[in-house]
Design a protein that fits this description.
The complex is a heterodimer. By secondary structure, chain A is of the alpha/beta class. Chain A has a single domain, classed as FAD/NAD(P)-binding domain (3-Layer(bba) Sandwich), CATH 3.50.50. Helices cover about 25% and strands about 15% of the residues of chain A. In chain A, strands 4-11-12-13-10-16 form a six-stranded antiparallel β-sheet, with helices on one face. In chain A, strands 5-2-1-9-17 form a five-stranded parallel β-sheet. In chain A, helix 1 runs parallel beside helix 12. Chain B has a domain of about 120 residues. Chains A and B meet through helix 6, helix 9 and helix 10 of A and helix 9 of B. Chain B: InterPro entries: TAT_signal. Chain B: This is Gluconate 2-dehydrogenase subunit 3 family protein. Chain B: It comes from Bradyrhizobium cajani. Chain A: InterPro entries: FAD/NAD-bd_sf, GMC_OxRdtase_N, GMC_OxRtase_C.
């Protein structure tokens, strides 16, 4: 395995090892580029994952201090935990459910498709679906997405069968076990899904794609990639010419190190990435690095989400098997006649008893609450995930008071639902309940959004430098050798789960970076 | 479908042995007739037995599951004694919270909280203090300490860790048999 010198100014430094950073690291390493990935969390291999929700949460979740504000319920119920994401090698690809869907064409040009929505800071992406299609194809092949590349779908579990039966009764057409980056048959040196059911706690069998045991070891095997766990980047530094020169980070012992770099790519998820850029403010860049537009940290999106759980007369045991292998796509289209723009997906979801107690109706108690939990074995569940409106005022800022153990201001996350999000959620709750009512649900429970898993948009792509932070390749408008490689570069959120698009963008970005390095442009 | 055996595997005997570690088994056995509660509440070092018993009642009233015996709730609230021993702020949080609850119960029913006979009346008393730090902390702790007990899970038809059993691929992940034919 490679080991690069701190003074090696020829390396590409990537901050974060998840879907964006881990993929970019491997892709660059395969092309012969020297890469150092600095990952804030520890390296925990998949055999050490635990099938226990709270224990796994302690093992994997990002629980460093953050603050919250705004009218979203998470700010009240989980004020210190705005997001449920991961601090470990592999990032949130250890925790993700595996749903791998392409954006629709209109979702790359929302300003054109939706027009002027008051309060929404809509913008078309500087890329189109046609441009992205070949990269989506590469991503699907890399990740082994079911129902692509001749890979069969996963078998449906009990939870899916309930949803499927209800969906068909309602007349929904596009209902199947999803496009999942989970092996339905052995592929790429990894086995088939064993229907373990703890997808969110890290896949112990390795059937689910995660950079932890795919991209990262493949990159390391080239001799061009070094991953340093326990390395929290504090600041990105630049020279008098305004080019970045490296990063300062706290290593595993807490000691400060300075890694020089030819290029820095930020992929710390949509809360930490803008935080790092803002914390890297200097005399030359007083509002934060790459922030001449003032858009760093703004347009924070978290998807319109919610869940519906339904209780039946007889057992379902929804927790058995793949957590999210089930989807209804009929509501994912843009049909403003429903009273909102954009669409949403309905995806099977199950959480275990401990998390059901914590998330079904946070703060609730008494017999109405315990009656719901008594129905646990007879429960089916779905997650509702749809496009939310980017708003300038939904943003990540530096908390004026709270600091981390290295003395750096922590991220403060402000979020208010847009009226479009509220209208979409109301529609989705109603349709979700109708699916279950159609097959005999005795009661349904609309469940509020969990701490955010899809954090997007805080360093968005734009054609014009004044509208966003990065260009169509994730390259900073202001600083040519600074890139953003995670979901924070999303111009808008689309209805579907974001990981496939993050991976496709990372593969494309690697191609661009390697080309630009070869041409000595950066 | 493969159903879960939801019978309690948490025997009264095992619980008593576990709770009264320092007491010889014979002594425990002879004291069973006294009361199951006394055995555990008297063990508390910092909080009084009466406070522990009131906490138990509060816990049952916050998350009432008639299928669960007291032992699960006792397991859930017992750690408050240890936390109170370590931190005076926790000790006063619990003592002051219980004192206020008892005072309210006295004002309304002329009884301590734990002696108020009907759940519906006790719930009214809890509603009055719902926004207090005491209630929020006790409820917030209980939602984990009760539902995160592995012994509780089968009572709710939840099977817990599955990887060591080979997942559910051969254990009923798709065995639902009552749905209408699609």
């Amino acid at each position: 395995m490679a080991k690069f010198d701190l003074n090696d100014s020829g390396v590409v430094v990537i901050v974060g090892s998840g879907a964006g950073g881990g993929t970019l690291g491997n892709e660059l390493a395969q092309k012969g580029v020297k890469v150092v990935i600095l990952e804030a969390g520890p390296r925990i291999e998949n055999h050490d994952f635990v099938n226990d929700e709270w224990e796994s949460f302690s093992q994997l979740a990002w629980t460093d201090a953050r603050t919250t504000s705004g009218t979203w319920r998470v700010a009240k119920d989980f004020s210190g935990l705005p997001a449920w994401i991961v601090k470990a090698v592999g990032g949130s690809t250890t925790h993700w459910a595996g749903a791998s869907l392409r954006f629709d064409e209109h979702e790359f040009k929302v300003k054109s498709a939706y027009g002027n929505i008051p309060g929404a800071n809509l913008l078309d992406w500087p890329v189109t679906l046609a441009e992205m299609e070949p990269w989506y194809a590469k991503a699907e092949n890399k990740m082994g997405v079911t129902r692509t590349n001749g890979i069969p779908g996963l078998p449906g579990n009990n939870n899916f069968k309930v949803m499927e039966a209800g969906a068909k009764k309602l007349g929904y057409k596009t209902v199947h076990t999803g496009n999942m980056a989970i092996n339905s048959q052995p592929r790429d040196g990894r086995g088939a899904c064993q229907q373990i059911g703890f997808c969110f706690q890290g896949c112990k069998s390795g059937a689910k794609w995660s950079t932890l045991y795919t991209e990262i070891p493949k990159g390391e095997a080239t001799g061009n990639l070094e991953v340093r766990p326990g390395s929290m980047v504090i600041k990105i530094e630049h020279d008098a010419g305004g080019k970045v020169t490296g990063v300062v980070y706290a290593d595993e012992t807490g000691a400060m190190q300075r890694q020089k770099a030819r290029i820095v790519a930020v992929a710390g998820n949509s809360i930490e990435s803008p935080r790092l850029l803002l914390n890297s403010a200097s005399t030359m860049f007083p509002d934060g690095l790459a922030n001449s537009s003032g858009q760093v940290g703004r347009n924070y999106m978290r998807h319109m989400t919610g869940s519906v759980y339904a209780v039946f007369e007889k057992s379902v045991h929804m927790y058995r098997g793949t957590t999210m292998a089930g989807i209804i796509r009929d509501e994912a289209t843009n049909n403003p006649k429903r009273g909102f723009v954009g669409g949403y997906e309905m995806e099977t979801l199950s959480i275990g008893l401990p998390f059901m107690a914590a998330f079904l109706n946070p703060g609730a108690w008494g017999r109405s609450f315990t009656s719901a939990l008594d129905g646990y074995p007879r429960m089916a569940g779905m997650w509702l995930v749809g496009e939310d409106m980017p708003q300038e005022t939904n943003r990540i800022t530096l908390d004026p008071v709270v600091k981390d153990k290295f003395g750096q201001p922590v991220a403060s996350v402000h979020f208010d639902d847009h009226p479009n999000d509220v209208a979409m959620r109301a529609h989705a709750y109603k349709q979700g309940a109708a699916v279950y009512d159609a097959v005999g649900a005795t009661v349904t429970y609309p469940t509020p959004p969990y701490p955010s898993t899809h954090n997007l948009g805080t360093n968005r792509m734009s054609e014009k430098p004044r509208d966003g932070v990065v260009n169509k390749f994730g390259q900073s408008h202001d600083v040519k050798n600074l890139f953003v490689s995670d979901g924070s570069q999303f111009t808008s959120g689309a209805a579907c789960n974001p990981t496939l698009t993050i991976v496709a963008l990372a593969i494309r970005q690697a191609d661009y970076i390697a080309g630009a390095m070869q041409k000595k442009e950066i | 479908m493969r159903e879960i055996d939801r019978r309690s595997k948490h025997s009264r005997r095992v619980f008593l042995k576990g709770a009264a570690t320092a007491v010889p088994v014979v002594a425990v056995a002879s004291s069973v007739a006294v009361s199951i509660e006394d055995a555990w509440a008297d063990e508390a070092s910092t909080l009084s037995p009466a406070t522990m018993k009131t906490l138990l009642k509060v816990a049952r009233d916050i998350y009432p599951h008639d299928v669960l015996g007291d032992s699960y709730y006792i397991t859930a609230i017992k750690p408050w004694d240890g936390k109170a021993a370590k931190d005076p702020a926790v000790k006063s949080l619990i003592n002051d919270g219980i004192a206020r609850l008892d005072q309210n119960a006295h004002d309304r029913h002329k009884l301590a909280y734990a002696e108020v006979p009907w759940e519906a009346d006790r719930v009214v008393l809890l509603k009055e203090i719902e926004q207090s730090d005491f209630f929020q902390k006790v409820r917030g702790d209980l939602v984990v300490s009760l539902y995160n007990q592995k012994e509780v899970w089968p009572r709710f038809g939840y099977e817990g860790s599955s990887a060591e059993h080979g997942g559910y691929i051969n254990r009923g992940f798709a065995d639902i048999d009552w749905l209408p034919k699609a």
